[in-house]
């Protein structure tokens, strides 16, 4: 299993809305690196759900429900979408400030590549963030 992080601005699509919807598709990604990460996701992979711009914190965990397929918002074959289901709301959201303050997470993509909307997360980073969220 691999770990990932996806970003959403809460005023556009929040964790609360995600939970109400029970499943959603991640579309509209127009960055090649982010697209490649979507393509690499496998059904069952776990994904941090990060509120960007306002809140700037990891608030929950999603699960890949359907692997990459043609993005329905474009006819360009280069772009894909992935389906996610909510898996778990974190006991305690983990803020970007706290992530940046933890030296063990200095190489995390969220710290190094702040604008990338879909990112890989290493096993070690996943475990550290889960510990910070009170989940271990």
Short description:
By secondary structure, this protein is of the alpha+beta class.
What does this structure look like?
- The chain starts with a strand and ends with a helix.
- Strand 3 (46-51) and strand 4 form a beta hairpin.
- It is globular and about 40 Å long.
- The chain is α+β, with helices and mostly antiparallel strands and 136 residues long.
- It has a 6-stranded mixed β-sheet with strand order 2-5-4-3-1-6.
- It is built from 5 helices and 6 strands, in the order E-H-E-H-E-E-E-H-H-E-H.
- 26% of the residues lie in helices and 36% in strands.
- The model has no long low-confidence stretch (mean pLDDT 96).
Q: What descriptive keywords fit this protein?
A:
single chain; 5 helices; six-stranded mixed β-sheet; alpha+beta; 36% strand; 6 strands; 136 residues
Helices and strands in order:
Layout: E1 3-8, H1 15-21, E2 24-26, H2 32-40, E3 46-51, E4 57-70, E5 80-95, H3 96-101, H4 109-112, E6 118-121, H5 123-132
Parallel strand pairs: 1-3
Antiparallel strand pairs: 1-6, 2-5, 3-4, 4-5
Shape: globular
Q: What is the terminal-to-terminal distance?
A: 18 Å
Rg of Cα set: 14 Å
List the strand order in the largest sheet. 2-5-4-3-1-6
Low-confidence stretches: none
What integer is the average pLDDT?
96
Helix percentage range = 25-40%
The structural class is: alpha+beta
The largest β sheet comes out as:
6 strands, mixed
Question: What sequence of helices (H) and strands (E) makes up the elements?
Answer: EHEHEEEHHEH
What's the number of helices? 5
Q: What fraction strand?
A: 35-45%
- DSSP, total strands: 6
């Amino acid at each position: 299993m691999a770990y990932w992080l996806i970003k959403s601005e809460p005023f556009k699509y929040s964790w609360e809305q995600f939970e109400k919807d029970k499943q959603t598709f991640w579309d509209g990604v127009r960055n090649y690196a982010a697209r490649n990460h979507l393509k690499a996701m496998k059904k069952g992979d776990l994904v941090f759900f990060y509120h960007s711009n306002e809140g700037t914190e990891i608030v929950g965990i999603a699960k890949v429900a359907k692997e990459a397929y043609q993005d329905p918002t474009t006819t360009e074959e280069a772009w894909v979408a992935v389906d996610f289901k909510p898996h778990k709301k974190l006991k305690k959201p983990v803020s970007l400030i706290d992530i940046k303050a933890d030296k063990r997470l200095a190489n995390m993509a969220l710290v190094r590549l702040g604008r990338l909307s879909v990112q890989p997360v290493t096993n070690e980073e996943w475990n550290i963030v889960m510990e910070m969220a009170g989940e271990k």
